[in-house]
Amino acid sequence: MTPTTSTTQPLVLGVDTHQRRHHAALVNAEGRLLADHEFPATSTGYHQLWQWATSFGPITQAGVEASASYGAGLTRLLTAHDVTVIDVNTPDLPRRYAHGKTDQLDAHAAAMAVFTGRAEAIAKDTTGIVESVRMLYVARASAVDEATRIGNQLRDLVTTAPAEWADRCRAATTTAQRITLIEALPTPAPKTKLSAPAAAFVRAGRSLLTRYRLAQREVTDLTRELTAL
Fold first, then answer.
1. What is the pLDDT of residues 45-62, one digit of tens each?
2. Which terms under GO biological process does the entry name (predicted)?
3. Does one domain contain both 106 and 18?
């Protein structure tokens, strides 16, 4: 919608965010819906949304659904323009029951949540060191999970070792001992077929060990990088 008039009074922006599209709505100082429009959830789309919204008047506050996920990119742009972004994650259930759910209604509801003061939580800052720490922690947690999972698989492999290796494996009760065991196993002769359990055991053990070390290296590197922050 193109504005026919603009105002100098501050307006409230509400945005219903999705992975591919964002729907925006504007509310004036009297709480009346001025306009709404849909934009692509891309950098270009965020700028288009901002230009569209400010063509109606100054924007000082915005209610953004999922401001830390689907709305994170738009939230960063609005914050850069000195807009106070309020996180709107709790739906206005009475309004939804009365009018149903559409992107247009949800965008309007987000604006009204800010206008009425129902939503007050300031959106998280995703532009500084806190966001960097969060992302690195996500990667480190994944690496820890991967190392733990592979360590458990290595334990299970050693526990069910074929007869040729059973006696040696029985004494390996810790991850460090299992690693030492796998490292010490002789490489099967080139013509040995993997259909032989003893050869398959060595091959599987070394494969798991390679991936375990990679995951552990990631944990070590990410821990060092987080500590440096």
1. 999 999 999 999 999 999
2. DNA transposition
3. yes
